[in-house]
Amino acid sequence: MKPRRRWWRWLLLLALVGVALLAKGYWNATRDPVIRSATVEVADWPAGQPPLKLLLLSDIHVAGPDMPPARLTRIVAELNALRPDVVLIAGDLVSEKRAATHIYTAAQVVAPLGGFRAPLGVVVVPGNHDHWFDPAALRGELETQKVRVLQNEAVKLGPLVIGGIDDDYSGHADVAATLAAMDRLGPGVPLILTHSPDSIPAVKRPVAAILAGHTHCGQIRFPFIGAISYVSRYGDRFACGDMIDRSQRIFVGAGLGTSLLPLRFNTPPDAWLVTLKAKAARP
């Protein structure tokens, strides 16, 4: 075999492997979210209150090609089957990734979220991409869809007092204002919703759970090497999943959509179904 012919065959093989990897990464990005579940026992759970189910979503990143509004509408319908009592969305509803084939309007991005059916409602905090897009337009559309937006604010829903910290990555977080807003609402089961987990160390008192997103669990994570980045000044401290940090229970979701590139490796889309209930008496 001539050397030149052998060389071209190797190039063709490498090209085919590259195409296969891109196809696999895109398939990973567009698969249905993995539903992860956990239980949090709360010591001061209100007497007579049955358990509550929280659904945590993050990083929806509506944009073409991987997250058109039609896909989000289908996911919302599937998640309704879990019968959550409250839906918590940890920011980044939109995306302007370089590989986007279509950027949708605020109305198109938000409309599918109006399909959630949760007795205690739907709450969202902005992410960095939401601030870079058009936060006023997004907030207006969310309020039209009866979705509560928290920007360093708090809301009481049933027995829950939910504090929503605005985005840390884009410089809008005010943890002290959020905690003060929670205090003004009086007693209840405290929860904090934030886009970036980098706000967590500033929460100096315990709450039942802190729920976040932003890291995408790395989005592209290589075997043995790990993720390219978690976009966090704390590295992998708050990288992904169900964790305890300084005795504080924390959940960080991988998100539904993608940023920069419509690819995922070893980090499937996910949503967390977290059940809050009374702490069992110990003998």
Automatic annotation (TrEMBL):
Gene3D superfamilies: 3.60.21.10. Residues 53-217 form the Calcineurin-like phosphoesterase domain. It holds the Pfam family Metallophos. GO terms for biological process: lipid A biosynthetic process. GO terms for molecular function: metal ion binding; UDP-2,3-diacylglucosamine hydrolase activity. SUPFAM superfamilies: Metallo-dependent phosphatases. InterPro entries: Calcineurin-like_PHP, Metallo-depent_PP-like, Metallophosphoesterase_sf. One of its GO terms (cellular component) is membrane. Keywords: Hydrolase, Metal-binding. It comes from the Bacteria. This is Phosphohydrolase.
